[in-house]
Amino acid sequence: MITIDQLIKFEFVEGFVAHGDCISFVLAYNYGVAFSMFEFLAENLKFLQIALLGGVAIYLYLNKDVFTEYYLPIAFIFAGGISNIADRFIHGAVVDYVYWHCGFDFAIFNLADVLIDIGVDWLLNLGWRLDGLFSFVFRTPRKLSKQDAQSLLNTDLISNEKVKQQLNYTFEPIDSYLDVVIDFFKKA
Predict the structure, then answer these.
(1) 113 an active-site residue?
(2) Is residue 5 a contact partner of residue 83, using CB atoms and an 8 Å limit?
(3) In the annotation, is 183 catalytic?
(4) What is the pTM of this model?
(5) I need a surface site. Which of 3, 48, 86, 95 has the fewest CB within 10 A?
(6) Do the beta carbons of residue 7 and residue 83 sit within 8 Å?
């Protein structure tokens, strides 16, 4: 999966472009993560992503039963993550190329992003179904409802305007707060 994703990305870096009524295939470099979030972390982002994948890998190594049970969706997530991290080292940013513009504009994405989404969705559905099975077999209440599992996939944006008005509160922008945290750890 990593090889296929990297070969497709190579074609776009070399200049492949195709336009359609709903989907266009065009090169775009993403310096952040999903929807260009955390772009301000620049070069540090790839190391944070490596640390995250490394932490998950250590957890899976120490909990082999989890890996054995969920190895396929985990493989999808790791393949997508590794391929996007490789982009950061090879191209300085993630190579995105699928642009949906039918009825509304959607973020430009790539095969690696789709693999990650499939893996996460797969894990959530497995978790919900296994919770139901254990609940049925052991006659215990469910811990995860279908609505809980679906809400984890929800991408609706929630406004903080009501909180700001009711409490007369101003939120500090996350990038300035993260700058303070990064500076703190650099000094430590």
Answers:
(1) yes
(2) yes
(3) no
(4) 0.70
(5) 3
(6) no
